[in-house]
TrEMBL record, chain A:
This is Phosphate ABC transporter ATP-binding protein, PhoT family. Residues 8-250 form the ABC transporter domain. CDD domains: ABC_PstB_phosphate_transporter. Keywords: ATP-binding, Nucleotide-binding, Phosphate transport, Transport. It comes from Sphingomonas palmae. SUPFAM superfamilies: P-loop containing nucleoside triphosphate hydrolases. GO terms for cellular component: membrane. Coiled coil: none annotated.
Automatic annotation (TrEMBL), chain B:
SUPFAM superfamilies: MetI-like (SSF161098). One of its GO terms (molecular function) is phosphate transmembrane transporter activity. Part of the binding-protein-dependent transport system for phosphate; probably responsible for the translocation of the substrate across the membrane. This is Phosphate transport system permease protein. Belongs to the binding-protein-dependent transport system permease family. CysTW subfamily. It comes from the Bacteria. Gene3D superfamilies: MetI-like (1.10.3720.10). One of its GO terms (cellular component) is plasma membrane. Keywords: Cell inner membrane, Cell membrane, Membrane, Phosphate transport, Transmembrane, Transmembrane helix, Transport. It comes from Sphingomonas palmae. GO terms for biological process: phosphate ion transport. It holds the Pfam family BPD_transp_1.
TrEMBL record, chain C:
GO terms for molecular function: phosphate transmembrane transporter activity. This is Phosphate transport system permease protein PstA. PANTHER family: PHOSPHATE TRANSPORT SYSTEM PERMEASE PROTEIN PSTA, PHOSPHATE TRANSPORT SYSTEM PERMEASE PROTEIN PSTA-RELATED. Its main location: membrane. It comes from Sphingomonas palmae.
Length: 255, 458, 431
């Protein structure tokens, strides 16, 4: 696809919870100008792997991550890596929309505030507006920014969460099945949004919906039982899979 | 300088440090517009904490250590040579001198106490000055050292958060310190008591009359069996005879029969019973219930009917415990899977039959655990028995006769004008230790029973 | 309860006898079902009875306290004609407003003048002995309020002595009852404001609760200042940051056990450590507050942990994912959301501490203290302890004072619990 160096590289990553080995020996490169989709049956470890890309697994006491994950060549599990800064650079959107029980404005402004990205109120306002606009929500909420974020519909809440992630100006956005709790119309909006955001941020999306992966992504990784079975251009994976298991999954023989 | 002024001064220093460090950190940001891990206020907090925390920690330690240092300094003066050898008299004189020096007492009973007071005051003033100076020095040193570290790349946020984490840990250690404090103070004083009175005399003796202690054989008058019996009789027998049926039946009615609306106002009504202060129950027991109980006893032809009967105290204690039993039973009944209830009802059993034969047996371990907790509560209850039960210890099965309890005796022993180290005062700590051990045991067993029961239905 | 649920069809005989279906309409069966329904009703009534009995106990207790206590808020007054023109005052009446007026009036022999007036007016009924010891203070305050009273005769209703007061309320000794009958229309009733402004006294008619109330308030300030921060901080630590290991388990077990330790044991701890080892002043709100803080802290910890646990993890994830540090996650999101629960638990714990008596007895807050404490290290008593002390008094006048003090304490507790319930209902969020 491109000759630029990868944004994130993961090599030989293992993740385990206690004695349970969730991910084995996964190596993947993520590129800035692409949307990368992780597909695979439920429980195959794709979400676990995603969470290890911004160290959200740190919040689970028994989780162990080994291997090497780098952001722009920096080892994100290195001692001197500040996990807070890492998460500001690698944002995340969750399966279920989880806006803070605060106003819409506060939801988006929260990240810029804690990272000190705005020097003034006006600058903060501009960041909020820009983020909501990019998330395609501005026109719907511009007149009620002080309403609670939880009062929005599910699809709007999810776009609010995306706006919140964008607001801290991340380099990578991780999306963990962002549409699984939404209806088809809202899903279509999110997919459009992903399409619009492509190129500005490196996007990694976990989905169990193959059509969605085919629609939104340029590169696709197929996970099965904690292993990476196949990784390549989306068009190749869907039209011409090299592995038998990938083919079986895509053609709906299991999953 | 008074402790409050000092605290205020140190806090003010912290505030100044915060403002200065924040201003300085802001200046970096204007120079370079790159992303820092720490915002200006993080630097402010870091310097402020470095200013305040060491000084306060020192003051806290100093507050605990300096009384001993002051006493040592006083003992080193020439007048202190006149003091009697270590023992009760010496402690009394020293404490008198300390009270006078602190301005809390004006005359002394012993001339030596009066004579030592100036030395005490001088030593106190000296050590107070030392404490103040060191605390302020620490504050300045901490502030200066941390201020020098304020640089663009310095991760003040993670340092501050590390400090806060230590603060949180320290807060949760207070619980351990309290537990250790309780156990230590009880054990140390009890050990002193058992040096005077043999353990066996205390635990198995059946005669309790601390007002007349024979100095040659103090154990003869300090046998605690009548107290243990009285405590058990009032707390575990009479009170439970009231609280268990009423509490259990209330819980059954509220969970199984009452409409949600009735339940909404009946349940808080019961809980109000638990919120009434025990001193009110005590007054109620002594003033209203006890005379009625004595009359009833006399009417029944019981000559020994006392106005300080076990029955009056136990009845009122039972009323106090009702909401406790009721809420435990409520929880246990609610934890029984509804499938069991439905199964019984589906066979054509009536509600009463279902409750008696299915729900209550299934909830029984939880209920028993709740009753054990209630007993532990009743055994430790003080004010009702202090006000309504008697001070004389008798071994009796007659609920109309006067009976005393462990808690009542602790209060009686400690509120007389007895010296701190006598067998009487120390006996209160031995009783306290016994009480602590019994309630702890009851709680542990009760929680084990309840937990096992919960696991069975999870 | 030996009846069985359904008529038993013995399995062993079923093979022998030909199977007959149960006749549900037989006479015996119908009687049986009726009996079972009766038992059902009986059981249900038994349950209702238990609730009613418990509620009746509460109602009875409250009625007894109110019936006895309301009179504590009322005082009997005797109308006394006064003529103070002979009073030798060292200052002009116009200057009686400023400081020093109290001393000037006392020095002029106001107390004796009032007594003399009472002796003149009611010689047959008992004279000055009819009046409360503090009656002349009312005259003093009246004069300070309006110095012109010194220039002409006037009448003033003054509080009567405790024995007369009790008799006027229909509960006194025969002698006092006779005096009351004779005084007749000279007696009147009024609100006993002194009850709210006075401190403890050996004279029931002068005893008030302000001293004890102030002692309680100072004690509660110390308790809150210590128990609240320590309780909330340790709850945060245990719930959000503590590693799962033996040490943490030990902390948890300690806290849960402390919540169940009898309050008197905390009193023993206070006596041994705060008074015995640290030599803090005896009977002081500082020591009382410290002791009650140790007792209240576990309650706050447990309530706060429950409130913190109720905050859904998705909020924490959301904050972490935009790069909030663990401390920021808690201070910006978890704590604000858990605050209502934490506050509710704190108020309930404080209400319990306010009603607590036994530990305060242990650290000597039971002394007779006739002046309200001025600071945290002054000798003081607390409201529940005052109730306990008054309940021991032989004098009849203290019965109504005790009940009245109980009513005041209950009003405080009801108010605190009311606020707690309001907070819970107003801010409770279900996730």
């Amino acid at each position: 696809m491109s000759n630029n160096p990868p944004k994130m590289t993961a090599s030989h990553v293992d993740v385990s919870y206690g004695t349970n080995h969730a991910i084995r020996d996964v190596s993947i490169d993520v590129y800035r100008e692409d949307v990368t989709a992780f597909i695979g049956p439920s429980g195959c470890g794709k979400s676990t792997f995603l969470r290890s890309l911004n160290r959200m697994n740190d919040t689970i006491p028994t989780a162990r991550v080994s291997g090497d994950i780098r952001l722009d060549g920096e080892d994100i599990y290195a001692r001197e890596m500040d996990v807070v800064q890492l998460r500001a650079r690698v944002g995340m959107v969750f399966q279920k929309p989880n806006p803070f029980p605060k106003s819409i404005y506060e939801n988006v402004a929260y990240g810029p505030k804690i990272h000190g990205l705005a020097q003034s109120k006006g600058e903060l306002d501009r960041i909020v507006e820009r983020s909501l606009t990019r998330a395609g929500l501005w026109n719907e909420v511009k007149d009620r920014l002080s309403d609670p974020g939880t009062a929005l519909s599910g699809g709007q809440q999810q776009r609010l969460c995306i706006a919140r992630a964008i607001a801290v100006d991340p380099e990578v956005i991780l999306m963990d099945e962002p549409c699984s709790a939404l209806d088809p119309v809202a899903t279509a909006r999110i997919e459009e949004l992903i399409h619009d955001l492509r190129g500005r941020y490196a996007i990694v999306i976990v989905t169990h919906n193959m059509q969605q992966a085919a629609r939104v992504s340029q590169r696709t990784a197929f996970f099965h039982l904690g292993q990476l079975i196949e990784y390549g251009d989306t068009s190749d994976i869907f039209t011409n899979p090299r592995q038998e298991r990938t083919k079986d999954y895509i053609t709906g023989r299991y999953g | 300088m008074s402790p409050l002024t000092l605290l205020f001064l140190i806090s003010a220093l912290g505030l100044v440090a915060w403002v200065i460090a924040r201003t300085r950190a802001r200046r970096f940001r204007r120079v370079t517009r790159q992303r820092f891990s720490s915002l200006p206020q993080h630097h402010g907090w870091y310097v402020a904490l470095c200013t305040v925390v060491p000084a306060l920690t020192f003051l806290l330690i100093w507050y605990f250590v300096s009384p001993a240092l002051v006493t040592d300094a006083v003992l080193a003066t020439s007048r202190a040579a006149l003091l009697p050898p270590p023992g009760f008299d010496r402690a009394a004189i020293l404490s008198e001198a300390r009270e006078i020096a602190a301005g809390r007492a004006f005359g002394a009973f012993t001339p030596l106490g009066q004579a030592l007071a100036p030395a005490y005051a001088a030593a106190q003033a000296r050590f107070d000055t030392i404490g103040t100076v060191v605390a302020l020095l620490l504050a300045f040193a901490g502030g200066a050292w941390s201020f020098l570290r304020v640089r663009p790349g310095f991760s003040a946020r993670s340092r501050t958060e590390g400090l806060i984490m230590w603060l949180l840990l320290a807060a949760s250690l207070v619980a351990i310190a309290t537990t250790v404090g309780i156990v230590l103070s009880l054990v140390v004083e009890s050990a002193r008591f058992f040096r005077i009175v043999p353990v066996a005399d205390f635990l198995f003796g059946t005669h309790w009359s601390p007002s007349v202690i024979d100095p040659r054989d103090p154990g003869a008058a300090l046998g605690a069996v009548p107290l243990f019996w009285g405590t058990f009789f009032i707390g575990a027998v009479i009170a439970m005879a009231v609280a268990v049926p009423l509490g259990l039946m209330s819980a059954i009615y509220l969970t199984q029969y009452a409409t949600p609306r009735a339940r909404r106002w009946m349940k808080p009504l019961l809980e109000v019973l638990a919120g009434v202060p025990t001193v009110v129950y005590g007054y109620f027991a002594a003033l209203t219930v006890a005379p009625v109980v004595r009359e009833a006893g006399s009417a029944l032809g019981i000559a020994s009917a006392s106005s300080e009967s076990a029955l009056a105290a136990g009845l009122v204690m039972g009323i106090m415990i009702i909401p406790f039993v009721s809420s435990m039973a409520d929880d246990s009944l609610a934890a029984v899977p509804s499938a069991m209830r439905d199964g019984s009802l589906a066979m054509g059993a009536t509600s009463a039959e279902t409750i008696k034969r299915v729900l209550v047996p299934a909830a029984l371990p939880g209920v028993i655990g709740g009753v054990l907790l209630a007993i532990s509560r009743a055994v430790g209850e003080t004010m009702i028995v202090v006000m309504a039960a008697s001070g004389t210890a008798t071994l009796t099965l007659n609920p109309f006769a006067s009976t005393t309890t462990v808690t009542k005796q602790i209060v009686d022993l400690l509120t007389g004008e007895a010296e701190f180290a006598s067998a009487k005062t120390l006996a209160a700590f031995a009783l306290g230790l016994t009480l602590f051990a019994i309630t702890l045991l009851l709680n542990v067993v009760a929680l084990m029973v309840v937990r096992r029961y919960r696991e069975a239905y999870d | 309860m030996t009846e069985t649920l359904v008529p038993q069809a013995p399995v062993s005989t079923a093979e022998i006898a030909p199977h007959r279906p149960t006749d549900w309409r037989s006479h015996a069966m119908e009687r049986r079902i009726r009996r079972r329904y009766t038992a059902e009703r009986r059981f249900r009534l038994l349950g209702l009875g238990a609730v009613v009995v418990s509620a009746a106990c509460l109602a009875f207790l409250l009625i007894v306290m109110i019936a006895q206590g309301y009179q504590g808020f009322v005082e009997t007054r005797l109308t006394l004609p006064l003529d103070l023109r002979d009073l030798r005052l060292e200052r002009s009446p116009e200057r009686l407003k400023g400081p020093g007026a109290d001393l000037a009036l006392a020095g002029a022999g106001l107390e004796r003048a009032v007594d003399a007036a009472a002796n003149r007016a009611y010689e047959a009924e008992g004279g000055a002995a009819l009046l409360s010891d503090g009656a002349w203070l009312r005259v003093r305050d009246a004069i300070k309020h309006d110095p012109r009273l010194l220039t002409h005769p006037f009448t003033l209703a003054l509080p009567v002595a405790s024995a007369i007061d009790v008799a006027a309320k229909g509960n006194g000794t025969p002698a006092a009852e006779r005096s009351v009958a004779k005084l007749g229309a000279h007696l009147s009733c009024g609100a006993a404001w002194d009850f709210f402004t006075g401190a403890d006294s050996t004279d029931a008619a002068r005893a008030g609760i302000w001293g004890a109330l102030k002692g309680s308030l100072l004690t509660m300030v110390v308790t809150l200042a210590l128990a609240f921060p320590v309780g909330v901080l340790s709850a945060i630590y245990l719930e959000e940051y503590a590693p799962r290991n033996r040490a943490t388990d030990f902390i948890e077990v300690s806290i849960n056990n402390l919540a169940a330790v009898p309050s008197i044991v905390f009193g023993l701890l206070g006596l041994a450590v705060f008074l015995g080892t640290l030599h803090l002043p005896r009977s002081a709100p500082l020591v009382g507050g410290l002791t009650l803080a140790l007792m209240t802290m576990p309650v706050i910890v447990i309530a706060s942990r429950n409130a913190i646990r109720a905050v859904p993890p998705s909020i924490r994830d959301a904050a972490l994912a935009v790069g909030a540090s663990p401390i920021q996650v808690v201070s910006h999101h978890v704590l604000p959301l858990a605050a209502p629960g934490i506050l509710t638990g704190t108020i309930i714990g404080m209400a319990r501490a306010l009603g607590e008596t036994a530990p305060l007895l242990m650290i000597g807050m039971r002394a007779f203290i006739a002046a309200p404490p001025a600071g945290f290290t002054d000798s003081a008593t607390a409201l529940p302890v005052q109730i306990f002390l008054w309940s021991d008094q032989v004098s009849r006048g203290f019965v109504e004072k005790t009940s009245a003090a109980i009513l005041v304490l209950l009003v405080f507790l009801v108010a605190m619990n009311g606020v707690a319930i309001f907070l819970r209902n107003r801010f409770e969020t279900r996730w």
